[in-house]
Amino acid sequence: MRSLPLADPGTPPVTGAGAYLWWIARRQWGILTVAVLLGMVAMGCQALLPLLTGRAVDGGLEDGFGPRLWGSAALLLVLGAVSALAGAVGHRYDVTNWMRAAFTSSQLVGRAAARSGHAITAELPTGEVVSAVANDALRVGELYATAARFLGSVAAYGVAAVLVLRISVPLGLVVVLGLPAVAVALALLVRPLQRRQAAQREASGRLTTLGADTVAGLRVLRGIGGEGVFVGRYRRQSQAVRARGVHVATTQSWLDALQVLLPGTFVVVLLWLGAHQAVAGALTPGELVSVYGFAAFLGWPVQSATETLGAATRAHVGAGKVVAVLRIAPATGTGRGAPLPPPGAELVDEASGLVLRPGRVVALVAADPDASAAVATRLGRFDDAAEAATPVRLGGVPLRELDLAALRERVVVAEAAPHLFSGALAHELDPRGTADRSGLLAALAAADAQDVLDSTPDGLDGALPERGRSLSGGQRQRVALARALLTAPEVLVLVEPTSAVDAHTEARIAARLADVRRGRTTLVVTASPLVLDHVDEVAFLVDGRVAAVAPHARLLEDPAVDAGTRAAYRRVVDRRLSEAAGDAPAPPDDRGVLTASAPAAGGRP
Amino acid sequence: MKLPVAEAPQVRAYALELGRRHARPLGVVAALHVLAAVAGLAGPWLLGRLVDAVTAGTTTGEVNRLVALGAVAVLAQTALIRTAQRRSMVFGEGVFAELREEFVETLTRLPLSVVERAGTGDLVARTTNDVNKLQHAVRFGVPRVIVAVTTITLTVLACVLVAPLASLALFLGVPALVATVRWYLRRATPAYLRESAAYAVLDGTITETVEGARTVDALGLGARREARMDEDLREAFTAERRTLFLRSVLFPSVDLTFVLAPAAVLLWGGWLASQGQVTIGAVTTVVLYAYQMIGPVWELIFWLDEIQVATVSLARIVGVRLVEGDRTAGTAVPTDEHVVAAGVRYAYREGHDVLHGIDLDLRVGERLAVVGPSGAGKSTLGRMLAGIHPPTGGRVTVGGVPLVELPLEDLRGHVALVTQEHHVFVGSVADNLRLAREHAGDAELEDALRAVDALGWVRALPDGLATEVGSGGAVLTPAQAQQVALARLVLLDPHTLVLDEATSLLDPRAARHLERSLSAVLAGRTVVAIAHRLHTAHDADRVAVVDAGRISEIGPHEDLVAAGGEYAALWRSWQHT
Asked: Most CB atoms within 10 A, among A126, A380, A574, B59?
């Protein structure tokens, strides 16, 4: 068995679900063919068993314990053994086919997600992409797993049909035509069942969400004592699911009953016809047994056909979902391959007039935090189309013309609310995989995040859960900062790197950050005076344009700076200090958290 | 520390207890299935009789009579199956609903310290994956196993009744079958658990890649994410290969047993018939019964497998019941609203005290700001004051009664805690609010929302108070979510409030707006505000500086600044600009 996943999943057509399914079939043509052949052998042998059983009965009736009985029984054994072995080997091929198709689809979706940047979340809900891997890829695989069984069943149906028609044409016709009719009738009955099942699944999904919600909100719940009310809500939804389940049970039990009634009636009719022919001498008792056996056996191919039809429908839908993900064009192209300027080139944002000169540690301040964050986003080249009108140049070359991977090595923009991934802390801290342990510890120290080592079992080698959930908000931010520092790019842009930490910590980070990046081009988007104090200079953005560039102290006090700009700057920086105290435009009675004087409706007297 | 998993005897005891509680319906269901299985045995028996009748020479009347008997059996089986299936599914639904409700009730009463030490991941997995896995087994598996077992037992019994001697050949392959199935079942559970764990990890990886797409792009993590996914698929492949190996042994072994049985019955029965011990018709019946048993035996093996896997889930669910509570409610009633902490110590891990004996006397109606560096124990102190955890040493009392001796329902009428975590619960806005006061009318809810300045936007939502929010519903901004939390406090109306960085994760503008809402909530209450913004401290009646698990300074802002200690230094660094 070839080891999976394959190193290269290939490049499928993304024109449609059918084309995609055909592409996969062609890629695993060999193992599909083997699986189909084995399926035919296994099912074909099975098809002969009722005939042999009948022969053995007739042999026993006519010759007693003699060669005819022995021969039939021995052949029964041999064919059964061949069928069992072909079935077992065939199952291995079925599973291999399933895995090849499913894993390839998963890999393709994974690659699309890893390469598309924010385009993927912009175009599809996260749930759909996840479901493409968690469900759709598996459904695509199912088609190839059932294909062999289906084609084997078709062959077996043909063999059995010929045999039963040779025994008796009228009985043969009843079997060959009657069974599919029964199957179609049952398939039609499945519809209402599926509707009710879907209704229950939906209610049940909501219940699962409520359950997960309990855990997620447990701390909040405990803080306000809402446990009892919450359990009451869960109970109600649980009973709703139960009621839907009773609905399903009603339909399901009818279907189960019909699954007895229809084939049962069919067999009774067959027995009646056969027995009359036997009484008339047109049929031997053994042949009657064979016909009964065929009627029982042929239920399998018919069932397999309906299953495959279902699997094919699901695979088609699944392939459509997979293709929808694969169609997403990455937000940034790979570039036109323009040569990267030599190290030490200036990074220039034309729209704001911001110039990042090599080796300077600069802060970017704006009255509107969104405006300064927008500049940082542009510097990161996250969306070629959206940024076409606001070019950013590195050494004079527009970013979108540069090779993307090479550019990401040189310029790193760490935005606000960065995402932490699960994995070993040491591995997750170091995106480039270049730092040694002392380097990791130094970066953690610079971000004042050594406490993370204590709260993660096994420290650097310990595992970080998804989104770094085991850490507090402030810890997460500091870990992300350490990670950004460890990328050690020529140009580093940090957006609000200290917004969630307390003043003590912020002061420490500000000093260490400036030290670590001293002499390397760095831009920090922030309005925190604790950080501004430590940078080489501050670029002050007014109405989206850089209005002044000077050290923090000069922007506050130096008369050489335009008085209006100084006043505006002081307002921004001061507000940051006193924001929650309500000194900024707000009603006079609104003086902050602990000076509440407004009478509260519903509050205590 | 991990959450406990129940041992096999505890799981068995729980399952038995569940069975005992529902003994009657279980008995009825089993009886119905027995009857249905009996009716299902008619076909081969009839065919055997027909073979004998035709061989011996018979009339069409006799044939008609036999076939009519078959028709009656089919009708009876149909009716019995319908009733039995319905009842057993309804039964399964009921039992399972009871089980999950009990589980969630246990869940909400878990000590928070246990949940936090174990991490919420495990608990979420138990609430979702384990409950879902168990659901399949309880709702479908248990009824199917009952059906399969009764069918197999009765079919064997029927064989023995029809042709006792000939039936002996049926059992030729049974020892090998039992041995293989046992071999398989012993190995199957860990193998399938590994498989589903591998897929869960894969799903987690793709979720992370998508949710963090922007970060993946920004830090050039694309190749890394692809490698991680390939690694997950490799593990899934290894796990699949293991289960495939197990099936590669099981499938042909079971198949061969069923090849062996009819052939052996034919030969042995043929010889017996030649000796006049049995009729060929009876042998035919037994052979056909042997074929008819293939389906139920496979079904039984399949469900034994699934039930084994579900037992692991059940062990994890029952395990949550084994967590011991961290408090026992007493009957003492607080005499006033005075909250006092005396000698409070707390250790998340034994021997590592985070708080080293804190004494704090909250004056009724005062505003106390708690400041200090990260990791100093501010939040832990807040939790002690709100009675979230029982202290490891010392005590926190309200009106003379320790907080942790108050029933949970009463506790929140005294002290409530609001943190920076703004979780919006799944449900309507009204549902979210009524967590604090279950029977509050819409007018009360609106008053509370108005008090926190949130009525405007709530009314503007598509369905107002009835708008669905939380996961899957309308998305609230962090500030709106926090306003909902504050409105809950208005409804809850405790005399003492602990605010732990309640606004620190919000962007500056939202925070400013919110603190207006907050001031409405705080009026007339004793407030402990844990904050990292010093202006908060400036406005408080008293400031407590917490450092390394101790209160290093406490007093009004002016006094502390004048004292020239740590707080004064900090304050100066904030003043500087």
From this structure: A380
